[in-house]
Fold these 2 entries.
Entry 1:
Amino acid sequence: MANVLEVKELSKQYSKVLAANKVSFEIGEGEIFALIGPNGAGKTTTIRMISTLLTPTSGDAIVAGHSISKEPEKVRECITYLPDEAGAYKQMTGIKYLRFMAGLFVTDIEDINKCVERAKNICGLGDRLNDKIGSYSRGMIRKLLLARAVMTRPKLAILDEPTSGLDVLNAIEIRKMIKKLAAEEGMSFLLSSHNMLEIEFVSDRVGIISKGHLMVTGRTDELKERYNAPNLEDVFERVVKENEVH
Amino acid sequence: MKFINLLKKELSELINKQMILSLVFMLAIFFIMGNVMKSATSEIVEEASSNKLSICNMDDSDFTKDMLEYFKSNGSKIDLITADEGDLASAFNNKSKLKSYVVIPKGFGEAVEKGEKPEVLSVSKVKGAAALSNMSSGPEGTLASITLYVSQKLAEQQGITSDQLKTIESPLTITEHTVVADKSAQISMSSIVSKIMMQNMLLPIVVMVLIMMTSQSLIASISNEKIDKTLETLLSTPVSRGSVITAKMLAAAIVALLNAAVMMIGFTSYTKGMMSSMTADMTSSITDSATESVNSLLSTGDALKQLGLQLGACDYLLVGIQLFITIMICLALSIILGALVNDSKSAQTMILPIVMLVMIPWMVTMFTDVSSLPTAAKAVIYAIPFTHTFTAMPNLMFGNTSVFWLGLGYQFVIFIVVMFFALKLFTSDKILTISLNLGQKSRFKKSSKTNED
Ligand SMILES: Nc1ncnc2c1ncn2[C@@H]1O[C@H](COP(=O)(O)OP(=O)(O)OP(=O)(O)O)[C@@H](O)[C@H]1O
Ligand SMILES: [Mg+2]
């Protein structure tokens, strides 16, 4: 299986904080990989570097054969990025927003229409898409943004805490959608989350990150076995604790 | 294609119902103001030209009767006022439109006949605090007529002819000349100065409002995108950073142009009202030579041309270019300021640096000539790029072309430098990490501390 993403010793030094310290992992085609870690661990920082928004202090990542530091424009054609707690243009209607975003990825009118059609089906907002985004609830905005992140069929969709702000039912729906897209269309996903239950259900492999260090990566069942833990939450606790002992 | 998509989005964000409403509102205000001015001033003009004498006659001598008859036969309308004894205000109660009148007291005619200096009372009423409400010809017209009549009578008594009297009263023939640079014209300086002031007031106000509105909208646009994280989304899509920034600037510039056009239209209609008020002021203040002064005013345009103060099409083009560069500087600055914002509170105050940079030179150039300031102050003022926008018009008018070009060149250099930094900000990750907000920084510190715990 070819790797869609290869992260090689990626580091990011903010003025005072070393937010990511030699993070390395890879994601295969059609794979769902989740970064889990406590608040301030460096998940968002790592994700933003891979999305070409932050320049790494050292290291590199290869997305579909393109280096994020040398060919960021090429990388942007292969990915979509959904920021944590993102909003959308409030004065636009949902449908207009989708058209606008699609127009940034493809230029052909027919392709744009196809993307928008797809997003319409995925987001499940129905007629509310004709309303201004300013009138949407947080969950509705999240669903709209998720739909737009996958409508262009990127090779790699990068979703920072995709289900934050969604109720249980909607979160389940989103998880199912992610799994389906990965299985049926071969899209790869890089997620971050706090919700272990969700991660256990949705992801093929996880990476546990703490204080900028990627401690372990592996399949969920593998990790559970290795740490002799009943669930991912315990694995997480043990890994983070172990790290603090050092 | 992608760029047009971006531009359309930026434009639709800027041109909304609110913006159109405020434009219409602004136009309406200008038109209303202009019309109010016009009607207020036309009343004054009418009054000044009507030749109406408001007199309260308390003298029943033949001399006074003859004088009033003489006024009537000379085409003046006499408005006889009645006032209660010892109560000058009562006359205004009887006649609401009355603004001033002259009282001829008992014994007036007798005094003249005896060759004494007779007394008259000039009564005027303050109507309100507004400039125009008190602007009227006052009792001067009436007083002048009475003075003329009495001095003629006195002259007759002394055996002086009326021609001799005229010579004695104004023995000098004065022609006023005004010099600008190396040219001169036969016109009074005051009428030239007021005309120039009118012209030079318009542009700075338009520039001020334009800069404020344009920078505010661009700062808000960028800071909102930062706060909503739509900027992160936008920058992770396959569009060049350059086109994101250009689309934002172009949209803001287009809206600025729209605003400028509306303001120019509004202002011209407003200043037309102002101009006619000025004409009225002059005719009323020099009642005797009223016609003369109107004539000289009508020829102000020619005099301006003769003095080289009239701007030609080429000059206006240069002013336009200067205005364009000014707007570009303020757009580039706004991009940087908008990028510094991290929360909606600081977005409000981010325009302050631009306000300062515009207000200071505006004030300074309004009240004084920059080149006459002490060297240090001059250097500071000239270093502010917007100063050269305010001095552009006078520089072109007074023929300081080299100063104008220096200013324009300086502004261009500033624009390149600021734009360079703005682009650098956008193409690096600084746009997302930079922050002037101390509260935000301390939050980072706190969270990193809790990590270490
Ligand atoms: N712009 C910035 N400037 C300075 N430090 C930053 C900046 N952004 C993040 N940091 C710091 O980098 C570290 C990692 O932050 P990051 O946002 O990547 O964490 P996270 O894992 O996404 O946390 P959370 O689960 O809360 O989202 C934190 O200590 C944070 O304070
Ligand atoms: Mg995060």
Note: Chain A has one domain: 3-85+154-245.
Entry 2:
Amino acid sequence: MGNVLLIGKPNSGKSLLFNRLTGLQQKVANFPGVTVEIKSGSFDNIGIIDFPGIYSLNPLTKDEDIALQKFQEAVEQNNVSGIICTLDATRLERSLIIALQTLNYVKENKIPIIFALNMMDEIYANKTSIDVSSLSRDLGVVVIPISAKKKHGLDILKDEIKNMLKVPGNYLPEKTWEDEKIVIKSRGLNQTYGPKTDVILKKQNFLDKIFLNNFLGGIMFALIMIFLFQAIFTWASPLMDMVESTLAWMGQVTSSYLPDGVLKDFINEAIFGGVGSFLVFVPQIFILTFIIGILEDSGYMARASIICHKPLSLFGLSGRSFIPYLTAHACAIPAIFAARTIESPKKRLITILTIPLMACSARLPVYTLLIAVLIPDKTFFGGVFGLQGLAFFLLYFFGLAMALIVSGLLSRTTLKDESDSPYIIELPPYRLPTFVPLFRKSLSAAWAFFSKAGPIIFVVTLVVWVLGYFPNGSGNLENSWLSHIGQFLEPIFKPLGLDWKYGVAILASFLAREVFVGTLGTFFGIEGADENISGLAESIQNSGLLAASGFALLVFYAIALQCVSTLAILKRESGNKLFPIWIFVGYTVLAYLLALLTYNLVSWFS
Amino acid sequence: MKRSDILWELKEKSHAIIEGLGEKIPKDFQLRLGELGLLKSGSITCLKKTPFNGPTLYQVGDSVISLAQEVAENIYISRKTNG
Ligand SMILES: Nc1nc2c(ncn2[C@@H]2O[C@H](COP(=O)(O)OP(=O)(O)OP(=O)(O)O)[C@@H](O)[C@H]2O)c(=O)[nH]1
Ligand SMILES: [Mg+2]
């Protein structure tokens, strides 16, 4: 038996409905173009497939293109037993365009179809209504009113789906519409049966006057961004301290039960010193995801994209690049996928190539550690603003500035884009975020961060520990195997004022950036075996790292592309085998040169 | 009916009737604009201009879309009197 496909206008709630039906956790957010890849699941042995939203069967963007190709493939291979077309009841006219086009298509291919009229809760909340039965009669299709959010009508929908698979004949569309008339027909249907548009758009239009106000709009945008990045630092600190002290306590308890020897050293130095120092950063990922999640649910992302359109165009990008860029602060990979919604191929490519410069969460541990080492922990205004938080913000800004410079250069030096389509975006309504799913989403992001980088960090730490511990054991790092190997690296890192230990940590972090922290943690664990486990930042401070070298490290990590998965995705999404190589080499060289410059500038000033 | 009016010059809170799309707009994009509600002889309202000639918000049919200057400059309208 084939699958049931979920098709419909962007932002009409397909993915939320998919999650409700299948129990899976597909990403849901309040702007058009969230889903960019198809995803399958099932309920009661019925396969369900969530598609990227499409405005029409005439594709314009890459995500629509992919959706349509997959859709047609599935139909041609007889893999489709039915279709659920979601309609956004608050945007009935827009939803009906793709819905009527789909009706024509499925009638030709004899596929049964159901319309799921979603967001009915908002229709009721606005005290307006839709004449569902007349709409259904006029269209010649089964229309089920539902609310995926409030879980209304889902049982009825499930029954209808089962019925559709049993007696497909009852669900074949009765009518077709001339392609040229679909747009006008949709408007007519909405005017005859639909809700009162003015009532529905009232709140949205009112809020847009504030959030897009000439003066206030810009200020609020800046405040929201500053708040976002400041919060990752300030709000996460107490949680991070908690994790750190719990780990320290656990380390003390375990070592008091273990006999002296290699095992005890290993547990203390590699597990608690190395892997543990990375665990401390998990709360930051949680908070980052949580705040970005609030923005995504609220509908603000589309407004921010509008505000950024003009400034971004100066650098050859468009407002569409905003969402991928912001997403990239969590992780470059979903951000590169999100760039599929950019309609101009050239702008999309430039966005993809510069996404790795955004301060992704793998850089967080490195930044946080080095900031704790370099910047004094001073706060102002009763702790609202801190020097460290400010430094953190500047690092984010540095990443963005580098990305814009590179974008500007790329867009000016490469060929003109023939198929450059102009900027256009449909504005979603403002909605209050739903906190429980958001909380769950943030937890699973923190878990993913841990479980993805964790194994790599464990293995690298293990190798580094073995090479750094033997042959002489704890406290003898300078005569270990690793130190002999590390000496070869000294010439590269000496100009930055860094010794072989940092050289090894940097090299190892080409596997994953977070490894830097774990590796240093292990080194200081081996070196200071007799001391109590103190914070890693403190150990680095005591080791006498030069400020100039510290800043050079920050600059290096801000630019270098140390992420194998990003390179793999870049290759796939750019459709060019050479891009990842160029960009890897380019960013590494740039990172080194700018780090060198930073080292010399800071040394000269101090 | 005068064809000289362009959408980009429509003031905030005023209404107009769409007369047509200019040739400078690519074909596939013209199609999309129609599907997004920009219908010939349909009405359009300018909701909000943004600073520095940023994308402007328009209401067409039951939705609000924002159009960049390059697009709105190439859309012809006729004004409604006292709209
Ligand atoms: N009020 C209300 N909101 C809903 C309902 N269903 C979905 N939403 C919200 O609508 C927004 C879009 O939901 P998604 O499931 O991401 O929409 P989608 O159709 O998958 O969007 P794309 O993947 O971009 O095509 C989210 O903010 C949801 O929380 C509903 O029944 N009522
Ligand atoms: Mg979706």
Note: Chain B has one domain: 2-79.
